[in-house]
Amino acid sequence: MSCIPSANTMESTLANVLVSLGDIKSALTIYESLHHWEEMICCYNLLQLRHLSVEVIREQLAVKETPKLYCLLGDATDEVEHYHTAWKLSGERSARAMKSLGMFHYKKKEYAESIPYFQRSLEINSIQIDLWNRLGYAALQCGDKMDVACSAYNRYVSLEPDDFQGWNNLARAYLDRGEKQRTYNALVEAVRTSNMDNWKVIENLMRVAVDTKHFECALRSYSQLLDIKPKHYDGQVLTILVSAILDMISSTNEQTAPNDQTQLQDSADNDASSENPAKGDQHVQESDQNTDSNIPKNAGETEDDLINVQDIDLNLSEEDESTEQSDPRAPKRDQTPAQSRHLAKSLLTNALRLFGRLTSVILNESELWYLYAQLNQARDNAADALELRKTLKYVTHAHACLMRDERSVKEIEGRRRIGEVCALWSGLVGELAGISPPLGDRRGLLVTARMSLRSSLVGMERQTQVGGEGERDEEVERVRECLGKVEAMLSVS
């Protein structure tokens, strides 16, 4: 028995290939010669020759009426009664008729109306992968049908586990239901299946990881994000990360017994500033997934049903009662003190590396430099003169960025940050001034600090006189106190 396919089979395969390449007219010629009327109808639809589709369908209906023919007629004419005719003709067992009715509303963005038809179609035939996807999307757009969306997307990703958009939209549905841990798990799969090249999905994972206290994943995701967008800055995420890491280090230090002072190692030789920053902006062009089938499955449908990535906006906070692990500074229950110290060490090292990359390309964010200084103070050798100098450099950068922005002295938040930076600055120069033997020009450090603090104080006092708000006086007094400490050190130096 010959294994060579017949000529008709080979011609049909050739026509399918031509369709996949976009040569619809050539494919149509082959289908006509083979009398493959269903494929002919789909080609006419793709060529916007729907009147010819209607002619072919009516010719076939004259031979024999079938539910599928009436569904195709409805696709060609946009007359919904043909779908109902197909449904009745099938004895109310045509999954295609229900799907077509659902798609009729779906394409008009009448998502709530499309859901019952999709569900009925899937009850009859549950192996309709694209329909699970559209059911989930329709439910997601309704806003109040998240249970349906979660169920549909769960079924969809079980059938198409490598579709990152399905995982990402499943995460969105879980998030709207308040299930943050499941949101995190779904986004991990979304990033895995997106081949690490879709920055929106990676950003979603980063923000949810912070919100669910998966700090290692958050740091890793931020680094992956910088590979795609080297200048991406998210101050909210960085602030929470730094606060959590510092609290974790403080907590593990308190738990360490006096006879077991295994201090945190920050791999000082691997300083974040020695990391090779990404050079130049990398431009990533997102490509749409090609979900178009050949013929005849989706030939009569538009491309409006492709599911787009859903951006996830989170209300990040340092304390969140809905998160399973309520206290970010507390080690996990099954961790020993040594494991907690190791985790804190790892987080600190990775965070310093991340800040090294960020500060190599982002120079004018005062918050970034201030957070970097706080992290550097958490090193084991933070009290060494060289490390103090390094931390002081970060603080001076933060102060310079603040004072270049006129809004800093006008807005309460900016004035609060000025007070924090000045307090840290005065403390650092105090530590450097007390080091013996002295390193470098001790008096020069104090003079520079005095000039900068005095400049900050003058600007804040001027704004206080204009605004007359008593709440702002606290920050003025804070800066004045810092300036007094520096002047006192100068008087005895």
UniProtKB/TrEMBL annotation:
Record keyword Iron-sulfur present: no
Pfam family name, one: TPR_10
Gene3D superfamilies linked: Tetratricopeptide repeat domain
SUPFAM superfamilies listed in its UniProt record: TPR-like
TPR repeat copies, ranges: 95-128
Biased composition (Polar residues): 254-276, 287-296
Keywords annotated in UniProt: Repeat, TPR repeat
Keyword match Repeat: yes
Region Disordered: start-end pairs: 254-306, 318-341
Cited InterPro entries: TPR-like_helical_dom_sf, TPR_rpt, TTC27/Emw1
Record's compositionally biased regions (Basic and acidic residues): 326-335
Similarity section: Belongs to the TTC27 family.
Protein name: Tetratricopeptide repeat protein 27
Species this chain originates from: Cacopsylla melanoneura
